[in-house]
Prior knowledge:
Layout lengths: L1 H16 L3 H5 L8 E3 L6 E3 L5 E5 L2 E5 L2 H9 L11 H6 L1
Antiparallel strand pairs: 1-2, 3-4
Amino acid sequence: MRSILALSLFFGGVVAGCSSSTDREMPMSDEKSVTLDPVCGIEVDALTAAYREDDGDKTYYFASQDCWQKFHDNPHAYQPGSDDRKLKEVR
């Protein structure tokens, strides 16, 4: 009797834990795609961001219209490796 119970628990766990590879690859519907606003550094959900800017092969997301405008006016100042960041801070 114990062996039947053990087997049923084992196979029940295996069946309950199974999922197709498609299920594992698909993101959950409530997962957020969080990125940082390049101007102010605030976390922004790319799925719901009201402001964004496409710059070549990259899309930037912004926490506010003010941040988007600053980036739009001088995008190179907010891109990684830019020497214009010091100019941005002085203004």
